Amino acid sequence: MVSLHRVRSWPQPPLNFSWLGGLVLGALLLTGCGPDQAQIVTDATSYEAQLAQHLADTGSVMYGTYWCPHCADQKAMFGEAVDRVPYVECAADGDNPQPELCEQKGIQGYPTWEIDGQLSPGVKSLDDLADLSGFLPPQ
């Protein structure tokens, strides 16, 4: 005789393997397969970083304002090395403002570079900045 009663089975939750992805990612990071450490060193010795350091070492300065789009373009050329670029904020309401210095120097437009005591207004290519400041990258 065949039983008419069905064995009740509970629905199975769908398989979730997201924990597996986290486990694999964690293992890769722990074994050194994460971000390339050589890249971090390369960034510190990039052309942009070397030029920014040279500009700082030679007393060159970029005068600008936080609200100036051309200043933002100029800074963007330095990529991750932007923090090494010697910069004077001319807007009175900017971070670490020095509007008196900008006025003293006769800054009339932004950005303006001071290189070897000479003011040079406008966005400059990295190669132009290298030429103006006498930068020769190591070979």
* Main sheet strand line-up: 2-1-3-4
Helix/strand-derived category reads: alpha+beta
Q: Helical percent range?
A: 25-40%
Low-confidence stretches: 1-7, 33-42
Radius of gyration: 28 Å
SSE ordering: HHHEHEHEEH
CATH architecture of the domain at 59-127: 3-Layer(aba) Sandwich
Which percent range describes the beta-strand content?
5-15%
Largest sheet: 4 strands, mixed
Strand count: 4
* CATH level-4 homologous superfamily of the domain at 59-127: Glutaredoxin
Tell me, briefly, the overall form: globular
Task: Walk me through this protein's architecture.
This protein is an alpha+beta fold and 139 residues long. The chain has a domain at 59-127: Glutaredoxin, CATH 3.40.30. Helix content is 40%, strand content 11%. It has a 4-stranded mixed beta sheet with strand order 2-1-3-4, with no helix packed on it. The longest helix is centred in the first third of the chain and has 13 residues, at 18-30. The relative contact order is 0.14. Residues 1-7 and 33-42 have low confidence and may be disordered.
